[in-house]
Design goal:
Layout: E1 2-7, E2 10-15, E3 40-46, E4 62-68, E5 74-75, E6 80-82, E7 91-92, E8 97-98, E9 103-108, E10 119-120, E11 132-135, E12 141-145, E13 155-158, E14 165-168, E15 184-185, E16 191-192, E17 197-199, E18 203-205, E19 207-208, E20 215-219, E21 236-238, E22 275-282, E23 286-287, E24 292-298
Parallel strand pairs: 9-10, 15-23, 17-24
Antiparallel strand pairs: 1-2, 3-4, 3-13, 4-9, 5-8, 6-7, 6-11, 11-12, 13-14, 16-19, 18-21, 20-22, 22-24
Length: 314
Amino acid sequence: MWKLKNSGMASEWRRTAAPWMAAAGGLLAALSTGKAGAALLIHEVVSSNGGSYRDDTGANPDWIELRNTGPDAVALEGYGLSDGVKTPFKWTFPRRSLAAGGYLVVCASGEDRRTGSLLHTNFSLSRQGETVTLTAPGGELVDTVPAVELRRDMSLGRSSPDGAWRFFPTPTPGRANTGASFAGVVKEGPAFSVAGGFFDGPVSLTLTSPDAQAVVRYTLDGSEPVETSPQWTAPLTLASRQGEPDVLPLIPGTATVNEHTDGWKAPKEPGRKAWAVRARAFREDMVPSPVVSHTYYIGPEAKRTDGLAVISLM
């Protein structure tokens, strides 16, 4: 837990408890649940907002959500919010109250706006993780959020109804956190034994995850792997796709007439084909890893001979 140590006119925070997170797997552990019996809690935090919430100007700042779990309104004036434990009153609330059972989203934009419909703190949050604290006017720590790295548009919030900290792929500003949630995050994507490129002959491809408890799932059609995608269990052999029927090259275009053609025409020669391999690591009750993608052109017929660059879009 965190305690306030008084020394003359100065105050400082010092740490007196176990780590916020277990080292293995990034699982949430030993997190503060706030002062026992406290009605006011930090309910949800987003530190990399790509569009999960927009303020009154249309911007998408980071945000911190409070919830009043008690039966009475709470006067917020003088409460402090901070992104550093040594400065608990880095930003303080103006005269504002939070109704019983209510939610309040505070924009962590760095703009320090204390009037109007939306409040903005004088600090923003780092997506790599910063400890967020809520402190009562008298200096007592009310609640704290651990320094946890969050992906874009992912939140760390209290689940309903038990209040346990969970990762939410879909944030819910201004309401209860009832969507899908996870206890941790698989941080690193799978490793490919051979990087994509052009090859004269077949490629034997091994997919592994740095997380020994995760399983790797993959696709060969360019789609993102999901929990029902094939699980990697043995090396994949990627051979030439010469002779396979064309699919994408036969999708008609929209041109009607231009300087080169009087309309769409099918290619005169078979298209060059490649393997689009995408992989992702999955683990029970954890957000899947980022998707890792590589493209493989196998055989001399798959190589370009005109010197133009090749771009793989997935």
